[in-house]
Each structure stands twice: as C-alpha cells, then as structure tokens.
Amino acid sequence: MTKTLVLAEKPSVGKDIARVLQCHKNINGGLEGNKYIVTWALGHLVTLADPEMYDHKYQKWNLDDLPIMPERMKLVVIKNTAKQFNAIKNLLNRNDIKDIIIATDAGREGELVARWIINKAHVKKPMKRLWISSVTDKAIKDGFKNLKNARDYEPLYQSGYSRSVADWLVGINATRALTCKYNAQLACGRVQTPTLAMIDKRETEIKNFQPKNYYGIEILSNNIYWSWLSNKNEKHIFNQNKIDNIIEQLQNSKLKITNITTNNKKSYAPLLYDLTELQRDANKIYGFSAKETLSIMQSLYEYHKVLTYPRTDSRYLTEDIVPTLKERLIASKGGYFDDVIDQILANPIKKQNHFVNNKKVSDHHAIIPTEQPVMLGAFSDSEFKIYDLVLKRFLAVLLPPYIYKKTTIKAKVNQETFTTSGKIEIQSGWQQIYNHDNTEQFEQVLPLMKENDQYVVSEIKKTCGQTTPPAYFNEATLLSAMENPVHYTNNKSKQLNSTLINTGGLGTVATRADIIDKLFNTFLIEKRNNEIHVTNKGKQLLQLVPQDLKEPELTAKWELQLAKIAKKQQKPDQFINEIRQYTKKIINEINSSQATFKHDNLTTKKCPECSHFMLEVNGKKGKLLVCSNPDCKHKETVSIITNARCPNCHKKLELVGKKEKQLFVCKTCGYRQSMNAFKKERATKGNEARKSDIKKYLQQQKKQQTNIEDSPFAALLNIKDELK
Predict the structure, then answer these.
(1) What is the Cβ-side half-sphere exposure of residue 717, based on CA atoms within 13 angstroms?
(2) Average pLDDT of 19-38?
(3) How far apart are the C-alpha atoms of 442 and 440, rounded to whole Å?
(4) Contact 269, 437 (CB under 8 A)
(5) pTM over 0.70
C-alpha cells in the first residue's frame, strides 16, 4: 500500500497535521498512519556550504583569494540537526512513498526549507503544496481538500534561493575582505550594517542637537486652566518677547467663551501582538531583550502550548479563527481576568474588522492564546509576564470600545485665543483591562458654561521649556526602526520606500533579535544603562564599509527584484549575475581603500596562547579580555553582571576576580562582598537556603561566564548566520 509523505517545518505543526490525518504511530523522525506519514524539519536543516567546502585554501582567510565566486552553489546538511535530516531522507526514499506534500510555512523561507531538504535528499517524486495561514483543525482539513500544484510555487523557491545566494556572496566576501585588510573581525551584511548605521545616525543627531527655549501662556479662570493658542494653533513659540508683550496686554482682562464643542468619542483596543510589537512592549515594560522575549514565547508555544506561533508579522486573525475564540477564552480562565472572560462570553463573538482581516495575514496570524487549558502555576515568572501581555491584548480586542465624552472650549482674552478640554468616561470597554495604565481618563471636570459667558482671569503664568534631542535607541525603539527604516534612508524613491515598508523593513520578525544580539556580540554596539551606543569599533567599521552596505535601500532594491522572480517577471540568473558583479565592485572598493583601523581598547596583557596583546571589551553581560589575533579564539572573563542585588542600592552586582579571590562589586555605590561571605549569607538567609540552591546559582553564573560567545572573532565560525 502506497503512502503520502507530508513535510512540515516544525515539530509542533507536524504533530498538529499528524493528529488531523490520524497518524499516531511513532517512527524515527515522524508519525505514521494508514495513508500518510508526517515528518518535520527543525527550521533549516540544509544550508549553503562554507567557502572551504569548495577549496581547502579558503580555510585560511586571504585577501588575494577574493572574491569567492562558486560557479554552482553547494548545499550541506547542518551538523546540529543532521539526525533529523537523515530521518527525513530515509522516509523520502521509502519505496512505499509515492508522492510528497510540502507543508512548511506558507512563505518564501518555508518554500526554501522544504526544497533544499528534498534536493539534498536527491528525491524526485510528485509534489503538492499545502498552503494555509493557520493551523487549526478546520484550516488543515480545508487545506488538504484544496492542495495546490507544487510547480506553481517553484518561482517562490527561486526567489528565496536567490536571496540566500546574494546574502552569501556579498556578506562572506565583504566580511573576509574587511577582516583580512584591517586584521580585525569586521563582519558586515545587508541587514546588520544598515542597522548599525541607523544607531550611529541617531547618535550623531543627538550630538549635533542645539536645544531651543520655547514659551507659552497658561491662565486660571473660573477655576479652570486654559492654554494659549497662537494664530497657527501652536501652544508654544520660540519668541519670548512676544509672549511677554501678550502677558502684559492680558492684565486686568476678562475671558469670554466663544465656542463649546462636545463630542462622544470611541477608541478601539490596540491591535493584537505580532512578534515585533510584543518584543517592544516586553522590553519597555519588563526590560526583556528581543531574544529573551522570543525564547520565552517559544517555550509558551512549544512546551506549554498556550500561545500560538510566535514568529509572525501579522496583527490580525483570519475568519476561520473566529469560531475558535470561545474555546480559547474558556481555556484562558483560572487567572485574574475570569470576570472579564465571562463578560465576553455572555454574548456571541462576532467578526470585527479591527481584529479580523484575511488580507493582512500572510504566513501566520497574530499571537493569541490556544485552546489548551492554561496552568499558571507551571509558568516561570518571565513566562507569566509574556503570557499576561498576550492575554490582556487578546481580551482587549474582544471587549467593546472605550467611549467618552470630550468637551473642548475656546475663549478670547482681548484678541488672544485660549482653550481647555475635559473628558468624561461613558463606557470603560477595553480600558478595564489596562486600568492601571488608563491614560484616557477625564483631564478636569468642566463646570456648565455657555457661549458669551465672561469670567475674571485670576492668574496668568508664563510657561517655558526646552526642545530635547531624540532619545538614544533601546531594544524596543530599535526594533521599531528596523521594522520601518524609511526615516533613516537617503533615498527619495517612493517605490523603494514603499517596498521597504511592504516587505517588513530590515530583517524579519524571526531574525531581528539575532541581528541585534550579533551587533552586541561582535562589540559593534554596547549598552549604557538601557541605551544602545555604537562602540568605537562600530564607528570605524562604518567608515570602512562601502556606502551601499550601510543603506536600507539595498534591501529594498533586492526585494523589488526578488518579488519579480517570485512572479516569473525576472529570471533568477539575471539577479544573481548582477550580485556577482556588485560583489566584485565592493571587494575592489575595500581593497583599494587607504583607510586604517585602530584598536582603541588594546591592553598590555599578552594572550597566553599566541602572545598577541589582549583587547578589553564590554560584552552584553560583562567585561572580557579577548585576543587581538583573528586566528586565536582565546578569551577571559574580567567581570560579569549577575542577578545578585546590592543590599544598599539594589543594582545588579558584578562578579570580578578568579577562584578564591572572586568579589561581588557594586559599580554604583561601591559595595563589595567576597565570594565566601556571599556563600555564607546565602546559606543562612531567610529559611536557611539549601546548599543545592547556592550551588545551582553559582553554576548558572559560571555557565554565564563560559558560554559568552562574545569574542570579536567568534562570528567567523558562524558567519553565514550574521548575514540573514
């Protein structure tokens, strides 16, 4: 009896499909039923080969060997996931497998994942395509009833393949050229380098910012505060003399009501979360890094199974999800919002445009709770925080709008216009979820007033302030800038800017966290408190990198051509040949440059392995010494930021020194405590903490020390990842 093999992208999706298809028998790498075998990748199992796979001479980085231009790109199996690839390969080659259904994510990368696996397994069997935007039972069943011809998606695969080859050619060659020429790890790429350039541009704006004083007028009349409005409806102007003259003319004057406007207004809840928006809020509210948030989301998705697929760029649901919302709400009970959930369930849940839109869902819908009953007690603190954010946003969109009455009053004092307003809540709606952060409360209670009423001006006050520069980026605002980098481009082309917006900006929801992390790990950026700053190394890199690689426009130009490839309007070979020529151009530009690179953090300490001088660098989690020799991977931890808190100022303590000389030090107030004293305190504090707890804590800190992949040359081992 012949069977059909279904290839999903992830185990969780594969198991959902297997359940629907009645595949319950566990086999190596998948699940088997009477008609189907379901297997799954682990994301990419196959990738483009490293340069040394084409020629052993590329193992040693040499400027004279560049550019590296393989005539045909080779595919290799990723070592860490080779076991699963081999399992899939064996299943694909089974004699009873008559055809294949590609069920990877519905998008360019999903198509690439499947095709590379099938190509590397050297399998040529009939193929069909499952194309669904959600993984509900209904969506899966409907998808299998309407399977597509896999040939129709060949152009999409070619588009993904072309993007991958282009990133390989440009990224690998430019990175090797910079590293060899300047004897320093200077990785660059189509996404990473423009992101660095955006951070640097913001720093330059702040540095060059010239503050200006501005002035306004506030008066008190009829126990109400009124703000002055200029002829241009501005509350502030920069001319102090004009404000002083107006104030002088207002003395001993009365206020006359000229216009009263009252409107009922409503506001709907913010849109559901996609990954980027969730990462922003988690950073802003809890200080989580983008990578931390994604990791927590993965746990809630794969282990607890209480939240839907995290790597989504949509903030809407599809229509087929609406019938499942009742079950999801019931599964979410058991926490603080049971009364709210009961309130929502009291009426039928209808499709509404502010959260349901099929056209705005591509691969995956917004992040929402699943039908899996939640066990809050099983969550860690960080898991609970992320789940809580998602649940509140989910409940908010299902609640009625926030309705309030807004009254705006305009008045004249002499010939000058003043205004005031007040808000009165009529229906709390979704705001009841965010009552702790409700900014839409009434501003002041307004007494009953009529047009032409006159009142004494009891107080006149000049207000003043100063313009402020834009804020330094933090992880939350940087994610926003990467998502919408149009404000940071020098290009005036509406087409290119539109392409940047429509394609999601720099990187994808799945890669942005890694890109930011790699900028930290290669010491191109650093954190000062919660602010992100470009290091001197990063600033030097931007001086050395060809201008094209610093601009987001490069991504837009590529995406325009890749979109044409996906629509069969352009041949892939044409695009790749252009990229080959472009690669030659940037290599020549780097090679001919007269610029120099200087390590400003060189210490007098020599590397114990190669005798080169060590570099002192600020890693994301502490201070390190790393060897200045690109061929040497030696590094030493100088200090590491721990989770232990200073008893005086409650800031995180740093762990410095080695072995018995280790100290906990507070860089804020100067508090110091030896490791021995720390152990004794932890052992006797509270209810006599167990030795195992102390041991576990210290092991965590040790792991944190030894697992930091922050060497400026560490990226050379995984260079392709930096280019995504």
Answers:
(1) 11
(2) 96
(3) 7
(4) no
(5) yes
480 to 189, 200, 283, 290, 484: CA distances (angstroms): 20, 16, 12, 12, 6
Share of residues in the chain with pLDDT > 70 (%) = 88
Give CA–CA dist 535/601, Å, rounded: 11
Q: Give me the phi and psi of 272, to 5 degrees please.
A: -60, 165
User: What is the distance between the alpha carbons of residues 221 and 250, in angstroms, rounded to a whole number?
Assistant: 12
Distance CA 431, CA 266 (A): 11
User: Which listed residue (309, 387, 404, 488) is catalytic?
Assistant: 309
CB 272 within 8 A of CB 359: no
Nearby residues of 22 by Cβ (< 8 Å), 6 or more positions away: 33, 34
Q: Return the residue matching tokens 């709390």.
A: 428
Q: Which two tokens stand for residue 370?
A: 């699943």
8 A C-beta contact, residue 712 and residue 617 = yes
**Rg, the chain, Cα only:** 30
Distance CA 523, CA 526 (A): 7
Q: Is residue 707 scored above 50 in pLDDT?
A: no
Question: Quick one: DSSP state of residue 317?
Answer: B
Q: Say if residues 168 and 723 touch (Cβ distance below 8 Å).
A: yes
* Average of per-residue pLDDT values in the chain: 86
pLDDT tens, residue by residue, 628-679: 776 677 887 777 777 777 887 777 787 877 766 777 888 677 788 877 777 7
Cα separation, 619 vs 366, whole angstroms = 34
In angstroms, the Cα distances linking 232 to 235, 256, 463 are: 9, 20, 18
DSSP bridge pairs for 143: none
Helix (H), strand (E) at residue 342: helix 338-345
> What is the bridge-based pairing of β-strands 602-606 and 454-466?
unpaired
Answer whether 259's CB lies under 8 Å from 236's CB: no
Query: Residue 441: which pLDDT band, with cuts at 50, 70 and 90?
Result: very low
Q: Which residues have a Cβ under 8 Å from the Cβ of 557 and sit 6 or more positions away?
A: 496
CA dist 520 to 319, 321, 479, Å? 41, 39, 14
In order of start, what are the domains of the chain with their CATH numbers?
A: 3-146 (3.40.50.140), 167-205+472-592 (1.10.460.10), 213-269+402-466 (2.70.20.10), 275-398 (1.10.290.10), 602-723 (no CATH)
What are the φ and ψ backbone dihedral angles of 639, each rounded to 5 degrees?
-150, 155
Cα 562 to Cα 345: distance, rounded to the nearest angstrom: 46
3-state SS of the chain: helix, strand, coil percent to 5?
A: 45, 20, 35
309 in catalytic set = yes
427 pLDDT more than 50: yes
Which residues have CB under 8 Å from 343's CB, separation 6+? 399
Are 642 and 667 within 8 A, CB to CB? Answer: no
- The amino acid at residue 239 is N
SS3 220: strand
Tokens of 142: 């409907």
* Alpha-carbon gap, residue 301 to 309, rounded angstroms: 6
Contact 386, 282 (CB under 8 A): yes
Residue 233: strand, helix, or coil? coil
Instruction: Yes or no: say if 471 and 528 are a contact pair by the CB < 8 Å rule.
Output: no
